[in-house]
Amino acid sequence: MPTIKDVARLAGVTVTTVSRVLNNRGYISDATRQKVYQAMEELNYQPNEIARSLHRRQSKLIGLIIPTVSHPFFGELAGFIEYYAHLIGYKVLICNSLLDRKKEKEYIEMLKSNRVDGIIMGSHTLEVEEYMNVNYPIVTFDRCISEKIPYISSDNYEGGKLATTLLIEKGCKKIAHISGNLQLQLLANKRSQAFIELSKEHGIESVIVETELNVFDITQYEAMIRHLLEKHPDIDGIFASSDVMAAYVIQICYFLNKRIPEHIKIVGYDDIKIASLFVPPLTTIRQPIEEMAKCAVELIVKQVNEEPFERENVFPVELVERLTT
């Protein structure tokens, strides 16, 4: 079985250099790093991850807890987190909580038993005290839970403002907002806040409907949207709090013979990759998903290395206008 000394000999470097490459420590030129990787591949060298983690007191594992990887937003987010973690030698354990409190707590215990270096929380069903007792580097998405724990979000208020303003400027007289459940106290609720304030400011009649607590259970969307449009047939503009919700609006409008954008205009939120493939292509508020994912990984690593970090990480949004408005 090849050893680290064999790798060093074949790569023409010292054992210390190979160790630094394996542990991603200190400056290593790309050329040297590539020589080490090539030598490892030729020798089929497999580093002992358990021994390495005990030696450096790091596992090079990051836990990611999200509602469900099947949701397009979280699927894209998880993909980018895994990509940027892998670039610096980390692996990601992905956990689907399905917004189940018991399941989320079990996953946290599992991640602790696997000695992860940190946890990225994209699901928030537990009480704040549960997070505070984790004693691991944590990054949260769309929820501020502590003065010490960093969080990441898009500029939700600005996104809600851009969406609502566009509907008003397009001449809508009665607009609706389909939001997540506002009891969850997420930063995404600022989208609804902006919708309410802008509607009142411009004297526009408005309606808000909320999902159930499990906002990502898409089976509820069809009935909820159909009920909204049948109860308020004069609605001519809708701001949906996600592109998936907006996709269901497009579908229900088709069944109700409401032409888009002639009879009703629609704005989504996220700009997931398939938003441009909807028929008609969806106008939406773009969150910089890739940049947010990269930041999440960097925040975990900074905490692990006891480096300074920003607690508030709010990313700008952008209006992407397509054919639904």
Automatic annotation (TrEMBL):
Protein name: Catabolite control protein A
Segments forming domain HTH lacI-type: 2-56
PANTHER family, A to Z: LACI-RELATED TRANSCRIPTIONAL REPRESSOR, RIBOSE OPERON REPRESSOR
Gene3D superfamilies linked to this entry: 3.40.50.2300, lambda repressor-like DNA-binding domains
Molecular function terms, GO-annotated: DNA-binding transcription factor activity; transcription cis-regulatory region binding
SMART domains assigned: HTH_LACI
Keyword Transcription regulation: yes
Keywords: DNA-binding, Repressor, Transcription, Transcription regulation
Top-rank taxon, per record: Bacteria
